[in-house]
């Protein structure tokens, strides 16, 4: 295992030190500094009144666009000419762009409607990216172009359910993170976002989720799990582009891990599902983009890119945990963007991934069931 963090160039440190994190998060302003290891215990129910509604997100996007004085542009997919460009229930789908750089970054939240804080984190990031004059955010705007999707699933968010609901009379519930399939898309949202994705052709992506509460070996809550929907060294990822994304995804998450572990209240591990299994699904958005999904000739060149996800603790945590759940996501996104803007993220040791705390995996959860054992690759670490 390679537990030791690489030394970073001074320039990166300077960028990070200059990042005005508190200014990026007005809802946290005035709170005392967080003590190490003091992530509050979750309550049994989500503080529903504190969750952003669809209307809240639309209003916040408009406010950010106005105050950014031209830096942030807010679009609806319908407004961009995409058909269908709305959700199953007919809601407009919103994306905001900021930056003029050549590296295109796709940031999405709340694909699962009952995983609530992706929008809070991404709106905070968007606000900083659009308005901050700090070296970090200047570099982000100069080197990157962000495509920020705070609420991928507005219908499920309004219903506070994981899925969207088909409006074809069946009322069938569709998990949008299993719906980017080579045979087509069950929900309008999926085809709309996929169509936009084929137009953007991003270089890298991030998807923000929540998971249930789990504890580490010391009975401390895990506050964030770092994951990739096609397991590194698993059945699928090493076979894509000669293993390029297997290495790239581990670098992305290894960089985030190194940056976030300095914060005492952030306690990370690697994501697992179904007991001690890693996820390896092909219909998830972050999987399909790595596989270069070409549906109906919309992606004829087979464009693809690496993508990872954060699983923040607490789809159902209480108010006290909320601020920290959001803040750790903001810090994680900032670490990712800073690494991409400087390019240093691609110098990260991919073996850091294997040193992130994790269960002793016994296999994989795939689209078609579990695979135990290691069908194509040995476990690395
Ligand atoms: Zn989720």
Describe this structure in words.
By secondary structure, this protein is of the alpha/beta class. The protein has one domain (10-28, 39-372): 3-Layer(aba) Sandwich (Aminopeptidase), CATH 3.40.630. The chain is 32% helix and 16% strand. It contains 11 helices and 13 strands. The strands form 3 sheets. It has an 8-stranded mixed sheet, with helices on both faces. A 3-stranded mixed sheet has the order 10-12-13, with no helix packed on it. Strands 5-6 form a two-stranded antiparallel sheet. Helix 3 packs parallel to helix 4 (118-131), helix 4 (118-131) crosses helix 10 (319-342) and helix 5 (135-143) crosses helix 10 (319-342). The longest helix has 24 residues, at 319-342. The model is unreliable at 1-44 and 377-381 (pLDDT under 50). The structure holds zinc ion. The site of zinc ion has 3 residues, from loops.
């Amino acid at each position: 295992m390679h537990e030791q963090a690489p030394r970073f160039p001074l320039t990166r440190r300077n960028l990070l030190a200059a990042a005005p994190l508190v200014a990026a998060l007005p809802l946290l302003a005035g709170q005392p500094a967080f003590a190490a290891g003091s992530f509050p215990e979750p309550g049994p129910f989500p503080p529903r009144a504190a969750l952003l509604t669809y209307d809240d997100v639309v209003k916040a996007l408009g406010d950010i666009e106005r105050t950014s004085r031209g830096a942030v542009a807010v679009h609806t997919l319908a407004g961009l000419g995409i058909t269908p460009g709305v959700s199953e229930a007919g809601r407009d789908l919103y994306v905001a762009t900021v930056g003029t750089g050549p590296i295109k970054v796709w940031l999405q939240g709340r694909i699962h409607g009952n995983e609530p804080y992706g929008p809070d984190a991404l709106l905070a990031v968007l606000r900083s990216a659009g308005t901050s004059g700090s070296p970090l955010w200047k570099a982000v705007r100069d080197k990157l172009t962000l495509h920020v999707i705070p609420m991928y699933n507005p219908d499920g968010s309004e219903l506070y359910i994981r899925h969207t609901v088909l409006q074809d009379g069946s009322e069938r519930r569709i998990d949008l993170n299993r719906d980017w399939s080579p045979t087509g898309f069950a929900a309008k949202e999926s085809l709309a976002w996929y169509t936009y994705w084929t137009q953007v052709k991003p270089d890298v992506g991030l998807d923000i989720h929540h998971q249930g509460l789990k504890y580490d070996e010391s009975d401390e809550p895990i506050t964030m799990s770092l994951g990739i929907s096609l397991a590194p060294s698993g059945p699928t990822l090493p076979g894509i582009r000669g293993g390029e994304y297997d290495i790239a995804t581990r670098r992305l998450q290894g960089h985030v891990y190194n940056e976030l572990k300095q914060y005492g209240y952030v306690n990370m591990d690697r994501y697992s599902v179904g007991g001690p299994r890693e996820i390896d699904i092909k219909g998830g958005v972050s999987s399909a983009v790595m596989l270069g999904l070409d549906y109906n000739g919309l992606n004829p060149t087979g464009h693809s890119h690496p993508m990872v996800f954060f699983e923040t603790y607490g789809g159902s945590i209480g108010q006290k945990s909320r601020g920290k759940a959001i803040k750790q996501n903001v810090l994680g996104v900032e670490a990712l963007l800073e690494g991409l803007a400087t390019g240093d993220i691609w110098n990260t040791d991919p073996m850091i991934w294997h040193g992130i705390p994790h269960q002793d995996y016994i296999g994989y959860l795939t689209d078609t069931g579990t695979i135990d054992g290691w069908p194509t690759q040995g476990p690395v670490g």
